[in-house]
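Slide 14.
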Amino acid sequence: MYKIIKKRLLNEAGTTIEMVVEAPLVARKCLAGQFIIYRLDEFAERVPLTIADYDREEGTVTIMFQPVGKSTMMLGELNVGDSILDFVGPLGKPTEMEGLKRVAVVGGGVGCAIAYPVAKAMHAKGIEVDMIAGFRSKNIVMLEDEMRANSTNLYITTDDGSYGEKGFVTDKLKELIESGRDYDEVVAIGPGVMMKYISLTTKPYGIKTVVSLNPIMIDGTGMCGGCRVTVGNETKFACVDGPEFDGHLVDWDELLRKGAFYKDEEADRKEHACHLTGGVRNA
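Slide 15: predicted structure.
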């Protein structure tokens, strides 16, 4: 069993939750870019979540998530002192940073919870990091202090202009590139559509662009094949070959079609989960 040590809400809207979990074996080996798969109890499904932070001395791993389905809603109902049955990891390949001097790390919405540890790890290695964090509105902005402390420059954008700069992350990235920022690499993490357009934005400039993909995943070992993606006309498995890939080689049309395949079922499942759990406390 893996005990929850800390829990907090990350934004005004209460849409994203941070949990610090006691998992010493995972904390000992994990690196930025990797993920875990948790299971609440013996009857629950397996759910992958990116490792947002870790403390090797304390033996803890931090996860951040939005309660949007039955499993994440039930996870959100747990409190400090409660335990999770399974917490398996680290899984996937860590972020590659060798040789990088200047990068832009772009996060969209809850994707900032995944982009933040990447920016933090790069910044700790002495890499110059421009962090661009995009949100729909001010009330869902999160991790501002943490991102600012672990980047060279932080730029926050909101769709409605209620905080930071009005506009999309693609607009800000293009502005920085055209102002003369000579990036070795751009890392984009967020909704599939956002990552697609970040990749399209950087391609004319020849800037290597890395994206973190999150297709449907079940076992996290490459056995089930559920997380198949096409990259450079080859079939890859996000759980073992990724989750990070070259954004210029991803078949985005295929990926987005797969992402929408269970849209109706997911909507029904979310409604059913709300009835089962009574919603998520304080979220």
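Speaker note: DSSP finds nine helices and 16 strands in the chain.
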